[in-house]
TrEMBL record, chain A:
<keyword id="KW-0808">Transferase</keyword>
<dbReference type="GO" id="GO:0016757">
    <property type="term" value="F:glycosyltransferase activity"/>
</dbReference>
<dbReference type="InterPro" id="IPR050137">
    <property type="entry name" value="PyrR_bifunctional"/>
</dbReference>
<protein>
    <submittedName>
        <fullName>Pyrimidine operon attenuation protein / uracil phosphoribosyltransferase</fullName>
    </submittedName>
</protein>
<feature type="domain" description="Phosphoribosyltransferase">
    <location>
        <begin position="11"/>
        <end position="136"/>
    </location>
</feature>
<dbReference type="InterPro" id="IPR029057">
    <property type="entry name" value="PRTase-like"/>
</dbReference>
<dbReference type="Pfam" id="PF00156">
    <property type="entry name" value="Pribosyltran"/>
</dbReference>
<dbReference type="InterPro" id="IPR000836">
    <property type="entry name" value="PRTase_dom"/>
</dbReference>
<keyword id="KW-0328">Glycosyltransferase</keyword>
UniProtKB/TrEMBL annotation, chain B:
<feature type="domain" description="Aspartate/ornithine carbamoyltransferase carbamoyl-P binding">
    <location>
        <begin position="28"/>
        <end position="173"/>
    </location>
</feature>
<dbReference type="InterPro" id="IPR036901">
    <property type="entry name" value="Asp/Orn_carbamoylTrfase_sf"/>
</dbReference>
<dbReference type="Pfam" id="PF00185">
    <property type="entry name" value="OTCace"/>
</dbReference>
<feature type="binding site">
    <location>
        <position position="108"/>
    </location>
    <ligand>
        <name>L-aspartate</name>
    </ligand>
</feature>
<dbReference type="InterPro" id="IPR006132">
    <property type="entry name" value="Asp/Orn_carbamoyltranf_P-bd"/>
</dbReference>
<feature type="domain" description="Aspartate/ornithine carbamoyltransferase Asp/Orn-binding">
    <location>
        <begin position="179"/>
        <end position="326"/>
    </location>
</feature>
<dbReference type="GO" id="GO:0006520">
    <property type="term" value="P:amino acid metabolic process"/>
</dbReference>
<dbReference type="InterPro" id="IPR006130">
    <property type="entry name" value="Asp/Orn_carbamoylTrfase"/>
</dbReference>
<feature type="binding site">
    <location>
        <position position="193"/>
    </location>
    <ligand>
        <name>L-aspartate</name>
    </ligand>
</feature>
Length: 169, 346
Protein backbone atom coordinates (compact mmCIF):
# COMPACT_ATOMS: atom_id res chain seq x y z
CA UNK A 1 0.00 0.00 0.00
CA UNK A 2 1.36 3.38 -1.02
CA UNK A 3 1.76 5.97 1.72
CA UNK A 4 -0.79 8.67 1.13
CA UNK A 5 0.50 12.24 1.11
CA UNK A 6 -0.96 14.72 3.61
CA UNK A 7 -3.16 17.33 1.93
CA UNK A 8 -1.76 20.43 3.72
CA UNK A 9 1.77 19.57 2.56
CA UNK A 10 0.47 18.98 -0.98
CA UNK A 11 -1.31 22.33 -0.94
CA UNK A 12 1.90 24.06 0.22
CA UNK A 13 3.75 22.55 -2.71
CA UNK A 14 0.93 23.42 -5.09
CA UNK A 15 0.85 27.04 -3.91
CA UNK A 16 4.61 27.40 -4.33
CA UNK A 17 4.54 25.75 -7.73
CA UNK A 18 1.66 27.93 -8.91
CA UNK A 19 3.31 31.17 -7.72
CA UNK A 20 6.49 30.19 -9.54
CA UNK A 21 4.59 29.20 -12.68
CA UNK A 22 2.48 32.39 -12.83
CA UNK A 23 5.58 34.48 -12.26
CA UNK A 24 7.50 32.71 -14.99
CA UNK A 25 4.61 33.07 -17.44
CA UNK A 26 4.07 36.71 -16.46
CA UNK A 27 0.44 36.09 -15.49
CA UNK A 28 -0.52 38.89 -13.10
CA UNK A 29 -4.29 38.46 -12.83
CA UNK A 30 -5.14 34.77 -13.02
CA UNK A 31 -8.75 33.58 -12.76
CA UNK A 32 -9.12 30.30 -10.88
CA UNK A 33 -11.73 27.79 -12.01
CA UNK A 34 -12.29 24.62 -9.97
CA UNK A 35 -13.84 21.46 -11.39
CA UNK A 36 -16.56 20.04 -9.13
CA UNK A 37 -16.32 18.68 -6.55
CA UNK A 38 -12.73 18.19 -5.39
CA UNK A 39 -11.26 20.73 -7.78
CA UNK A 40 -13.46 23.46 -6.31
CA UNK A 41 -12.10 22.76 -2.82
CA UNK A 42 -8.50 22.92 -4.04
CA UNK A 43 -9.20 26.06 -6.10
CA UNK A 44 -10.77 27.94 -3.20
CA UNK A 45 -7.82 27.03 -0.95
CA UNK A 46 -5.35 28.29 -3.59
CA UNK A 47 -7.52 31.35 -4.14
CA UNK A 48 -7.31 32.18 -0.43
CA UNK A 49 -3.55 31.57 -0.26
CA UNK A 50 -2.82 33.71 -3.33
CA UNK A 51 -5.09 36.46 -1.99
CA UNK A 52 -6.85 36.94 -5.34
CA UNK A 53 -9.51 39.63 -5.48
CA UNK A 54 -11.70 38.26 -8.24
CA UNK A 55 -13.91 35.34 -7.19
CA UNK A 56 -13.31 31.67 -7.96
CA UNK A 57 -15.25 29.95 -10.76
CA UNK A 58 -16.87 26.53 -10.54
CA UNK A 59 -17.42 24.10 -13.41
CA UNK A 60 -19.74 21.10 -13.54
CA UNK A 61 -18.67 19.27 -16.67
CA UNK A 62 -21.62 16.82 -16.73
CA UNK A 63 -23.01 18.25 -19.99
CA UNK A 64 -19.63 17.92 -21.71
CA UNK A 65 -18.61 14.37 -20.78
CA UNK A 66 -17.66 12.06 -23.63
CA UNK A 67 -19.37 8.98 -22.18
CA UNK A 68 -23.04 10.09 -22.48
CA UNK A 69 -23.56 7.39 -25.13
CA UNK A 70 -22.46 4.78 -22.62
CA UNK A 71 -23.67 5.85 -19.22
CA UNK A 72 -26.07 8.73 -19.84
CA UNK A 73 -26.39 11.91 -17.84
CA UNK A 74 -24.93 12.46 -14.38
CA UNK A 75 -28.04 12.53 -12.19
CA UNK A 76 -26.57 15.08 -9.80
CA UNK A 77 -25.63 17.86 -12.16
CA UNK A 78 -25.43 21.35 -10.63
CA UNK A 79 -25.08 24.67 -12.48
CA UNK A 80 -21.62 25.86 -13.45
CA UNK A 81 -20.82 29.28 -12.06
CA UNK A 82 -18.27 31.61 -13.62
CA UNK A 83 -18.83 35.01 -11.97
CA UNK A 84 -16.51 36.90 -14.37
CA UNK A 85 -15.84 37.53 -18.07
CA UNK A 86 -13.33 35.01 -19.44
CA UNK A 87 -12.64 36.80 -22.73
CA UNK A 88 -8.88 37.46 -23.12
CA UNK A 89 -8.15 36.39 -19.54
CA UNK A 90 -5.65 33.87 -18.19
CA UNK A 91 -7.62 31.00 -16.69
CA UNK A 92 -6.18 28.46 -14.26
CA UNK A 93 -8.18 25.24 -14.29
CA UNK A 94 -7.92 23.35 -11.00
CA UNK A 95 -8.78 19.69 -10.35
CA UNK A 96 -8.04 17.33 -7.49
CA UNK A 97 -6.93 14.35 -9.55
CA UNK A 98 -5.85 14.12 -13.18
CA UNK A 99 -5.83 10.69 -14.77
CA UNK A 100 -7.20 9.93 -18.25
CA UNK A 101 -7.38 13.62 -19.12
CA UNK A 102 -10.99 13.32 -20.33
CA UNK A 103 -12.38 15.55 -17.58
CA UNK A 104 -9.91 18.27 -18.54
CA UNK A 105 -10.87 18.03 -22.21
CA UNK A 106 -14.55 18.37 -21.22
CA UNK A 107 -13.74 21.33 -18.95
CA UNK A 108 -11.82 23.12 -21.71
CA UNK A 109 -14.72 22.62 -24.13
CA UNK A 110 -17.06 24.11 -21.55
CA UNK A 111 -14.75 27.07 -20.86
CA UNK A 112 -14.72 27.98 -24.54
CA UNK A 113 -18.52 28.31 -24.49
CA UNK A 114 -18.08 31.27 -22.15
CA UNK A 115 -15.72 33.12 -24.47
CA UNK A 116 -12.15 32.99 -25.79
CA UNK A 117 -9.65 33.10 -22.95
CA UNK A 118 -6.12 34.31 -23.53
CA UNK A 119 -4.74 31.12 -21.98
CA UNK A 120 -5.73 28.09 -19.90
CA UNK A 121 -3.28 26.46 -17.47
CA UNK A 122 -3.86 23.29 -15.52
CA UNK A 123 -3.23 22.66 -11.82
CA UNK A 124 -3.82 19.25 -10.22
CA UNK A 125 -3.34 18.18 -6.63
CA UNK A 126 -2.47 14.63 -7.72
CA UNK A 127 -1.38 13.12 -11.02
CA UNK A 128 -2.26 9.43 -11.29
CA UNK A 129 -0.76 8.80 -14.72
CA UNK A 130 -2.84 6.60 -17.01
CA UNK A 131 -3.34 9.36 -19.57
CA UNK A 132 -5.59 8.71 -22.58
CA UNK A 133 -5.36 12.22 -24.03
CA UNK A 134 -2.45 14.62 -24.57
CA UNK A 135 -3.14 16.65 -21.41
CA UNK A 136 -0.46 17.47 -18.80
CA UNK A 137 -0.74 19.58 -15.65
CA UNK A 138 1.42 22.71 -15.57
CA UNK A 139 1.60 22.50 -11.78
CA UNK A 140 1.06 19.31 -9.78
CA UNK A 141 1.23 18.44 -6.06
CA UNK A 142 2.51 14.92 -6.44
CA UNK A 143 2.55 12.04 -8.88
CA UNK A 144 1.19 8.78 -7.41
CA UNK A 145 1.73 5.31 -8.79
CA UNK A 146 -1.13 3.05 -7.78
CA UNK A 147 -2.17 -0.38 -8.96
CA UNK A 148 -4.63 -0.42 -11.89
CA UNK A 149 -7.50 -1.40 -9.55
CA UNK A 150 -7.00 1.57 -7.24
CA UNK A 151 -8.61 5.00 -7.56
CA UNK A 152 -7.88 8.03 -5.44
CA UNK A 153 -10.47 10.51 -4.20
CA UNK A 154 -10.26 13.80 -2.38
CA UNK A 155 -12.68 13.89 0.56
CA UNK A 156 -13.70 17.19 2.16
CA UNK A 157 -14.14 20.02 2.45
CA UNK A 158 -13.27 20.16 6.19
CA UNK A 159 -10.72 18.69 6.52
CA UNK A 160 -9.42 17.73 3.08
CA UNK A 161 -8.11 14.17 3.05
CA UNK A 162 -7.17 11.63 0.42
CA UNK A 163 -8.80 8.24 0.18
CA UNK A 164 -7.94 5.23 -1.93
CA UNK A 165 -10.71 3.01 -3.25
CA UNK A 166 -10.59 -0.33 -4.96
CA UNK A 167 -12.46 -0.63 -8.25
CA UNK A 168 -13.30 -3.72 -10.28
CA UNK A 169 -10.73 -4.50 -12.92
CA UNK B 1 -56.60 7.75 -36.29
CA UNK B 2 -59.55 5.93 -34.78
CA UNK B 3 -57.07 3.47 -33.28
CA UNK B 4 -56.11 6.05 -30.66
CA UNK B 5 -59.58 6.28 -29.23
CA UNK B 6 -59.81 2.57 -28.50
CA UNK B 7 -58.19 2.55 -25.04
CA UNK B 8 -59.81 4.57 -22.24
CA UNK B 9 -57.57 7.22 -20.72
CA UNK B 10 -57.40 5.72 -17.24
CA UNK B 11 -55.86 2.59 -18.72
CA UNK B 12 -53.35 4.76 -20.61
CA UNK B 13 -52.39 6.53 -17.42
CA UNK B 14 -51.85 3.30 -15.59
CA UNK B 15 -49.73 1.76 -18.31
CA UNK B 16 -47.72 4.98 -18.78
CA UNK B 17 -46.38 4.59 -15.28
CA UNK B 18 -44.17 1.73 -16.29
CA UNK B 19 -43.72 2.70 -19.89
CA UNK B 20 -42.00 5.98 -19.01
CA UNK B 21 -39.32 4.46 -16.79
CA UNK B 22 -36.44 2.05 -17.30
CA UNK B 23 -36.14 -1.04 -15.10
CA UNK B 24 -34.01 0.94 -12.64
CA UNK B 25 -36.37 3.90 -12.52
CA UNK B 26 -34.75 6.34 -14.98
CA UNK B 27 -36.87 8.41 -17.30
CA UNK B 28 -36.95 7.10 -20.89
CA UNK B 29 -40.16 8.73 -22.15
CA UNK B 30 -41.97 11.77 -20.77
CA UNK B 31 -45.68 11.35 -21.36
CA UNK B 32 -47.50 12.14 -18.13
CA UNK B 33 -46.65 13.18 -14.58
CA UNK B 34 -48.77 10.30 -13.26
CA UNK B 35 -46.52 7.69 -11.71
CA UNK B 36 -43.51 10.03 -11.36
CA UNK B 37 -42.60 10.59 -7.71
CA UNK B 38 -41.38 13.70 -5.95
CA UNK B 39 -37.73 12.68 -6.27
CA UNK B 40 -38.08 12.38 -10.05
CA UNK B 41 -39.84 15.74 -10.41
CA UNK B 42 -37.19 17.33 -8.20
CA UNK B 43 -34.43 15.80 -10.37
CA UNK B 44 -36.07 17.35 -13.44
CA UNK B 45 -36.21 20.77 -11.75
CA UNK B 46 -32.60 20.50 -10.55
CA UNK B 47 -31.34 19.49 -13.99
CA UNK B 48 -33.30 22.38 -15.52
CA UNK B 49 -31.57 24.77 -13.09
CA UNK B 50 -28.25 23.80 -14.66
CA UNK B 51 -29.64 24.41 -18.14
CA UNK B 52 -30.83 27.89 -17.13
CA UNK B 53 -27.19 28.75 -16.48
CA UNK B 54 -26.30 27.44 -19.98
CA UNK B 55 -28.89 29.85 -21.42
CA UNK B 56 -27.01 32.77 -19.90
CA UNK B 57 -23.70 32.01 -21.61
CA UNK B 58 -22.18 33.54 -24.74
CA UNK B 59 -22.57 30.18 -26.47
CA UNK B 60 -25.86 28.72 -25.27
CA UNK B 61 -25.17 25.19 -26.35
CA UNK B 62 -23.92 21.95 -24.81
CA UNK B 63 -22.86 18.84 -26.74
CA UNK B 64 -25.09 16.30 -24.90
CA UNK B 65 -27.29 15.24 -27.83
CA UNK B 66 -24.73 15.81 -30.58
CA UNK B 67 -25.45 13.51 -33.50
CA UNK B 68 -28.96 12.63 -32.27
CA UNK B 69 -32.06 13.41 -34.27
CA UNK B 70 -35.11 14.93 -32.64
CA UNK B 71 -38.33 15.11 -34.66
CA UNK B 72 -40.99 17.62 -33.64
CA UNK B 73 -44.25 15.96 -34.62
CA UNK B 74 -46.99 18.52 -34.28
CA UNK B 75 -50.37 17.17 -35.26
CA UNK B 76 -51.85 20.30 -33.71
CA UNK B 77 -50.46 23.76 -34.29
CA UNK B 78 -48.46 25.61 -31.66
CA UNK B 79 -45.93 28.39 -31.87
CA UNK B 80 -44.46 28.77 -28.40
CA UNK B 81 -44.28 25.11 -27.43
CA UNK B 82 -42.85 24.05 -30.77
CA UNK B 83 -40.27 26.80 -30.90
CA UNK B 84 -39.10 26.23 -27.32
CA UNK B 85 -38.80 22.48 -27.99
CA UNK B 86 -36.85 23.27 -31.16
CA UNK B 87 -34.57 25.69 -29.35
CA UNK B 88 -34.12 23.22 -26.48
CA UNK B 89 -33.09 20.43 -28.86
CA UNK B 90 -30.73 22.75 -30.73
CA UNK B 91 -29.13 23.94 -27.50
CA UNK B 92 -28.46 20.27 -26.73
CA UNK B 93 -26.74 20.07 -30.16
CA UNK B 94 -29.31 17.66 -31.62
CA UNK B 95 -30.40 17.80 -35.24
CA UNK B 96 -34.03 18.88 -35.38
CA UNK B 97 -36.70 18.08 -37.91
CA UNK B 98 -39.97 19.99 -37.65
CA UNK B 99 -42.94 18.23 -39.16
CA UNK B 100 -46.27 19.89 -39.44
CA UNK B 101 -48.28 16.76 -40.00
CA UNK B 102 -51.41 18.55 -41.21
CA UNK B 103 -49.57 19.54 -44.35
CA UNK B 104 -47.51 16.39 -44.91
CA UNK B 105 -47.85 12.73 -45.71
CA UNK B 106 -50.93 11.95 -43.63
CA UNK B 107 -52.91 14.33 -45.80
CA UNK B 108 -51.86 12.17 -48.76
CA UNK B 109 -53.43 9.17 -47.08
CA UNK B 110 -50.44 7.66 -45.25
CA UNK B 111 -51.40 6.26 -41.85
CA UNK B 112 -49.91 7.63 -38.63
CA UNK B 113 -48.07 4.36 -38.01
CA UNK B 114 -46.51 4.39 -41.47
CA UNK B 115 -45.39 8.00 -41.09
CA UNK B 116 -43.75 7.18 -37.76
CA UNK B 117 -42.09 4.00 -38.98
CA UNK B 118 -40.59 5.99 -41.85
CA UNK B 119 -39.24 8.55 -39.44
CA UNK B 120 -37.81 5.80 -37.26
CA UNK B 121 -36.13 4.34 -40.33
CA UNK B 122 -34.36 7.71 -40.71
CA UNK B 123 -32.67 6.87 -37.38
CA UNK B 124 -34.64 9.32 -35.26
CA UNK B 125 -33.83 9.17 -31.57
CA UNK B 126 -36.69 11.21 -30.16
CA UNK B 127 -40.20 12.28 -31.12
CA UNK B 128 -41.75 15.34 -29.53
CA UNK B 129 -45.46 14.76 -30.04
CA UNK B 130 -48.40 17.12 -29.87
CA UNK B 131 -51.76 15.64 -30.75
CA UNK B 132 -55.39 16.61 -30.33
CA UNK B 133 -56.24 13.08 -29.15
CA UNK B 134 -55.59 12.11 -25.55
CA UNK B 135 -53.25 9.15 -25.36
CA UNK B 136 -51.53 9.61 -28.74
CA UNK B 137 -47.96 9.89 -27.34
CA UNK B 138 -48.54 6.85 -25.16
CA UNK B 139 -49.83 4.89 -28.13
CA UNK B 140 -46.75 5.80 -30.17
CA UNK B 141 -44.34 4.89 -27.36
CA UNK B 142 -46.05 1.60 -26.67
CA UNK B 143 -47.01 0.30 -30.07
CA UNK B 144 -45.32 2.10 -32.91
CA UNK B 145 -41.73 3.02 -32.18
CA UNK B 146 -40.68 1.63 -28.78
CA UNK B 147 -36.99 2.40 -29.37
CA UNK B 148 -37.58 6.11 -29.82
CA UNK B 149 -37.87 8.42 -26.78
CA UNK B 150 -41.31 10.06 -26.79
CA UNK B 151 -41.88 13.46 -25.22
CA UNK B 152 -45.47 14.62 -24.81
CA UNK B 153 -45.90 18.21 -25.96
CA UNK B 154 -49.62 18.17 -25.17
CA UNK B 155 -52.25 15.52 -25.96
CA UNK B 156 -55.96 16.32 -26.15
CA UNK B 157 -57.37 17.14 -22.73
CA UNK B 158 -55.02 14.66 -21.08
CA UNK B 159 -51.64 16.15 -20.22
CA UNK B 160 -49.05 18.78 -20.99
CA UNK B 161 -46.30 17.71 -18.62
CA UNK B 162 -43.46 19.98 -19.81
CA UNK B 163 -45.72 23.03 -19.38
CA UNK B 164 -46.58 21.94 -15.84
CA UNK B 165 -42.91 21.37 -15.00
CA UNK B 166 -41.81 24.76 -16.34
CA UNK B 167 -44.52 26.25 -14.13
CA UNK B 168 -43.13 24.32 -11.14
CA UNK B 169 -39.64 25.61 -11.95
CA UNK B 170 -41.01 29.17 -12.03
CA UNK B 171 -42.78 28.67 -8.70
CA UNK B 172 -39.66 27.19 -7.08
CA UNK B 173 -37.52 30.10 -8.32
CA UNK B 174 -39.91 32.56 -6.68
CA UNK B 175 -41.02 30.66 -3.57
CA UNK B 176 -38.02 28.34 -2.99
CA UNK B 177 -40.21 25.41 -1.89
CA UNK B 178 -43.70 23.96 -2.35
CA UNK B 179 -44.53 23.12 1.25
CA UNK B 180 -47.11 25.51 2.65
CA UNK B 181 -47.98 27.07 -0.72
CA UNK B 182 -51.54 27.89 -1.71
CA UNK B 183 -51.90 27.85 -5.46
CA UNK B 184 -55.00 28.63 -7.49
CA UNK B 185 -55.70 27.63 -11.06
CA UNK B 186 -58.31 29.91 -12.59
CA UNK B 187 -60.53 29.65 -15.63
CA UNK B 188 -61.16 26.99 -18.22
CA UNK B 189 -60.17 23.90 -16.22
CA UNK B 190 -62.48 21.70 -18.28
CA UNK B 191 -60.57 21.96 -21.55
CA UNK B 192 -57.15 22.31 -20.00
CA UNK B 193 -54.54 19.56 -20.20
CA UNK B 194 -52.20 22.09 -18.61
CA UNK B 195 -54.40 22.27 -15.49
CA UNK B 196 -54.47 18.49 -15.14
CA UNK B 197 -50.69 18.26 -15.27
CA UNK B 198 -50.28 21.26 -12.95
CA UNK B 199 -52.57 19.73 -10.33
CA UNK B 200 -50.61 16.50 -10.41
CA UNK B 201 -47.26 18.27 -10.20
CA UNK B 202 -48.29 20.54 -7.33
CA UNK B 203 -49.71 17.64 -5.34
CA UNK B 204 -46.65 15.46 -5.93
CA UNK B 205 -44.29 18.28 -4.94
CA UNK B 206 -46.21 18.90 -1.71
CA UNK B 207 -48.14 22.17 -2.19
CA UNK B 208 -50.48 22.76 0.76
CA UNK B 209 -53.55 23.59 -1.31
CA UNK B 210 -54.48 23.50 -4.97
CA UNK B 211 -57.59 25.62 -5.48
CA UNK B 212 -59.63 25.54 -8.67
CA UNK B 213 -61.52 28.74 -9.42
CA UNK B 214 -64.01 28.50 -12.28
CA UNK B 215 -67.68 28.55 -13.19
CA UNK B 216 -69.32 25.13 -12.86
CA UNK B 217 -69.59 24.84 -16.65
CA UNK B 218 -65.80 25.01 -17.04
CA UNK B 219 -64.99 22.38 -14.40
CA UNK B 220 -64.62 18.70 -15.35
CA UNK B 221 -67.25 16.22 -14.20
CA UNK B 222 -64.64 14.36 -12.12
CA UNK B 223 -63.55 17.49 -10.23
CA UNK B 224 -64.24 15.88 -6.83
CA UNK B 225 -61.68 13.16 -7.50
CA UNK B 226 -58.85 15.63 -8.20
CA UNK B 227 -58.05 16.36 -4.55
CA UNK B 228 -58.43 20.13 -4.98
CA UNK B 229 -60.61 22.70 -3.28
CA UNK B 230 -63.15 24.33 -5.59
CA UNK B 231 -64.28 27.94 -5.49
CA UNK B 232 -66.86 29.47 -7.79
CA UNK B 233 -66.47 33.03 -6.52
CA UNK B 234 -63.09 34.35 -7.61
CA UNK B 235 -63.03 37.25 -5.15
CA UNK B 236 -63.37 34.78 -2.27
CA UNK B 237 -60.94 32.38 -3.92
CA UNK B 238 -58.10 34.91 -4.05
CA UNK B 239 -57.65 34.93 -0.26
CA UNK B 240 -54.19 33.87 1.04
CA UNK B 241 -52.89 32.89 -2.40
CA UNK B 242 -49.14 32.56 -2.99
CA UNK B 243 -49.50 31.74 -6.67
CA UNK B 244 -52.32 32.36 -9.14
CA UNK B 245 -52.21 30.54 -12.46
CA UNK B 246 -54.55 31.90 -15.12
CA UNK B 247 -55.59 29.64 -17.96
CA UNK B 248 -56.35 30.69 -21.49
CA UNK B 249 -59.99 30.55 -22.52
CA UNK B 250 -59.84 27.81 -25.16
CA UNK B 251 -62.35 29.14 -27.61
CA UNK B 252 -61.33 26.57 -30.21
CA UNK B 253 -62.29 23.75 -27.86
CA UNK B 254 -65.58 25.22 -26.71
CA UNK B 255 -68.53 23.14 -27.78
CA UNK B 256 -71.94 24.56 -26.99
CA UNK B 257 -72.65 27.56 -24.86
CA UNK B 258 -70.48 27.16 -21.75
CA UNK B 259 -70.09 30.89 -21.26
CA UNK B 260 -72.58 33.75 -21.23
CA UNK B 261 -70.08 36.11 -22.91
CA UNK B 262 -66.38 36.94 -22.82
CA UNK B 263 -67.19 40.20 -21.14
CA UNK B 264 -69.17 38.49 -18.40
CA UNK B 265 -66.36 35.95 -17.96
CA UNK B 266 -63.80 38.71 -17.57
CA UNK B 267 -65.93 40.50 -14.99
CA UNK B 268 -66.27 37.33 -12.90
CA UNK B 269 -63.06 35.39 -13.56
CA UNK B 270 -60.64 37.77 -15.25
CA UNK B 271 -57.59 38.68 -13.17
CA UNK B 272 -57.53 42.45 -12.72
CA UNK B 273 -55.69 44.69 -10.30
CA UNK B 274 -58.60 44.72 -7.84
CA UNK B 275 -58.89 40.94 -7.59
CA UNK B 276 -55.12 40.48 -7.39
CA UNK B 277 -55.05 42.84 -4.39
CA UNK B 278 -57.09 40.23 -2.48
CA UNK B 279 -54.24 37.69 -2.63
CA UNK B 280 -51.06 37.78 -0.56
CA UNK B 281 -48.95 40.84 -1.49
CA UNK B 282 -46.14 38.61 -2.80
CA UNK B 283 -48.50 36.43 -4.85
CA UNK B 284 -47.02 35.69 -8.29
CA UNK B 285 -49.13 35.67 -11.46
CA UNK B 286 -48.64 32.96 -14.06
CA UNK B 287 -50.18 32.15 -17.43
CA UNK B 288 -49.18 29.41 -19.89
CA UNK B 289 -49.80 31.71 -22.86
CA UNK B 290 -50.88 32.80 -25.30
CA UNK B 291 -52.65 35.39 -23.17
CA UNK B 292 -55.95 36.96 -24.15
CA UNK B 293 -55.61 40.44 -22.71
CA UNK B 294 -58.92 41.68 -21.38
CA UNK B 295 -60.43 38.17 -21.52
CA UNK B 296 -58.63 36.34 -18.70
CA UNK B 297 -56.18 38.95 -17.55
CA UNK B 298 -55.82 42.71 -17.43
CA UNK B 299 -52.79 44.12 -19.27
CA UNK B 300 -51.66 45.97 -16.14
CA UNK B 301 -51.49 42.64 -14.30
CA UNK B 302 -49.88 40.67 -17.14
CA UNK B 303 -47.16 43.32 -17.44
CA UNK B 304 -47.08 44.16 -13.72
CA UNK B 305 -44.44 43.48 -11.06
CA UNK B 306 -46.12 40.29 -9.79
CA UNK B 307 -46.23 38.72 -13.27
CA UNK B 308 -43.69 35.98 -14.05
CA UNK B 309 -45.24 35.10 -17.42
CA UNK B 310 -42.10 35.78 -19.47
CA UNK B 311 -39.93 33.89 -16.95
CA UNK B 312 -42.17 30.92 -17.69
CA UNK B 313 -41.17 31.07 -21.35
CA UNK B 314 -37.44 31.19 -20.53
CA UNK B 315 -37.88 28.34 -18.07
CA UNK B 316 -39.71 26.35 -20.76
CA UNK B 317 -36.49 26.00 -22.74
CA UNK B 318 -34.54 24.79 -19.68
CA UNK B 319 -37.24 22.29 -18.65
CA UNK B 320 -37.43 20.88 -22.16
CA UNK B 321 -33.64 20.54 -22.29
CA UNK B 322 -33.77 18.69 -18.96
CA UNK B 323 -36.53 16.29 -19.97
CA UNK B 324 -35.01 15.60 -23.39
CA UNK B 325 -31.55 14.89 -22.02
CA UNK B 326 -32.90 12.74 -19.18
CA UNK B 327 -35.11 10.66 -21.50
CA UNK B 328 -32.24 10.22 -23.95
CA UNK B 329 -30.03 9.24 -21.05
CA UNK B 330 -32.55 6.58 -19.98
CA UNK B 331 -32.72 5.21 -23.52
CA UNK B 332 -28.93 5.08 -23.66
CA UNK B 333 -28.68 3.29 -20.31
CA UNK B 334 -31.29 0.79 -21.44
CA UNK B 335 -29.49 0.05 -24.70
CA UNK B 336 -26.21 -0.40 -22.83
CA UNK B 337 -27.69 -2.85 -20.35
CA UNK B 338 -29.44 -4.73 -23.18
CA UNK B 339 -26.21 -5.15 -25.11
CA UNK B 340 -24.49 -6.31 -21.92
CA UNK B 341 -27.15 -8.92 -21.36
CA UNK B 342 -26.64 -10.10 -24.92
CA UNK B 343 -23.02 -10.81 -24.06
CA UNK B 344 -21.51 -7.65 -25.52
CA UNK B 345 -19.50 -7.18 -22.37
CA UNK B 346 -18.35 -9.53 -19.65
Amino acid sequence: MTDLPAVPALLDRLEQGLRHYLNERGIKRPLLVGIRTGGVWVASELHRRLGLEEPCGELDISFYRDDFSRIGLNPRVTPSHLPFETEDRDLVLVDDVVMSGRTIRAAMNELFDYGRPSSISLVALLDMGGRELPVQPDVCGERLNLSPTQRVKLVGPEPLTIEIREVKA
Amino acid sequence: MTELAATPLSAHDKASRNLQLTADGQLRHFITLDGLDRAMLTDILDTADSFIEVGERTIKKVPLLRGRTVVNLFFESSTRTRSTFELAAKRLSADVLNLDINTSATSKGESLSDTLLNLEAMASDMFVVRHSQSGAPHFIAESVTPGVAIINAGDGRHAHPTQAMLDMLTIRQNKQQFEGLKVAIVGDILHSRVARSQIRALQTLGAEEVRLIAPGTLLPADVDSLGCTVEYDMRKGMADLDVVIMLRLQKERMEGALLPSEREFYRLYGLDTDKLALARPDCIVMHPGPINRGVEIESAVADGPQSVILNQVTNGIAIRMAVMSMAMSGQVAERTSRSRQQGGEQ
